[in-house]
Specification:
Largest sheet of chain A: 7 strands, mixed
Structural class of chain A: mainly beta
Helix content of chain B: under 10%
Largest sheet of chain B: 6 strands, mixed
Distance between the termini of chain A: 40 Å
Number of strands of chain A: 11
Shape of chain B: globular
Number of helices of chain A: 0
Strand content of chain A: over 45%
Distance between the termini of chain B: 29 Å
Oligomer: heterodimer
Number of helices of chain B: 0
Radius of gyration of chain B: 13 Å
Radius of gyration of chain A: 13 Å
Chain lengths: 123, 107
């Protein structure tokens, strides 16, 4: 069974940093692109970042470019999201989501999701 | 504000059918549309991909279609457990795009 388990969320002050992790199991992690998608009451679902199976060419939404960095360790089946200079508008439930192929693609769908980890940015 | 437009809410009685629309410039060809539903506290679920394909395990009560710059998710035989928020997804040259979400209420 495909499973994605996020962790690392929490309460942080504006300008602070957090590192999210997504641990994958039940499939050959290195052969799938994985993404971060966030959900907030104000904006609904919003795509954040993607990284291909081979860890090349990460992609970012304009709203997080330059502040967030995605990475993956295929030996440990883990994807991470380093979030810096956090803003109140980054407050959301952050999901890890898999695309059903190895190269991250804007047009791809997300066939498996985790249950999310909550990030709250507030003073 | 989302560039994919969905109605904020739809409703229907048990056993009836409802449709949810998704419109916008990134819905027309060559773009394809995917649909998800979200329950509070649970992982989002893929319902439809590539306009009208259904993943294994999704009941055939769920169907998708696209015409011009409008896509539609149709749900027949409504059940109480269908009450959730439904999102469409498409893309443009450099972005993954989601609709604003539609809250389905089963009366």
């Amino acid at each position: 069974e495909v499973q994605l388990l996020e962790s690392g969320g929490g309460l942080v002050q504006p300008g602070g940093s957090l590192r999210l992790s997504c641990v994958a199991s039940g499939f050959t992690f290195r052969t799938f692109a994985v993404n971060w998608v966030r959900q907030s009451p104000e904006k609904g679902l919003e795509w954040v970042s993607a990284i291909s199976g081979g860890a090349g060419s990460p992609y970012y939404a304009d709203s997080v470019k330059g502040r967030f960095t995605v990475s993956r360790d295929n030996s440990k089946n883990i994807m991470s999201l380093e979030m810096n200079d956090l803003r109140p508008e980054d407050t959301a439930l952050y999901y890890c989501a898999r695309q059903p192929w190895g190269v991250a693609s804007n047009g791809g769908w997300f066939d498996s999701w985790g249950q999310g980890t909550q990030v709250t940015v507030s003073s | 504000q989302s560039v994919l437009t969905q109605p904020p809410s739809v409703s229907g009685a048990p056993g009836q059918g409802v449709t949810i629309s998704c419109t916008g410039p990134s819905v027309g060809s060559p773009y394809t549309v995917h649909w998800y539903r979200l329950f509070p506290g649970a992982a989002p679920q893929l319902l439809i991909y590539s306009d009208s394909s259904r993943p294994s395990g999704v009941p055939d009560r769920f169907s998708g279609s696209r015409s011009g710059s409008s896509a539609t998710l149709a749900i027949t035989g409504l059940q109480a457990e269908d009450e959730a928020v439904y999102y469409c997804q498409s893309y443009d040259l450099s972005h993954v795009l989601f609709g604003g979400g539609t809250k389905l209420t089963v009366l």
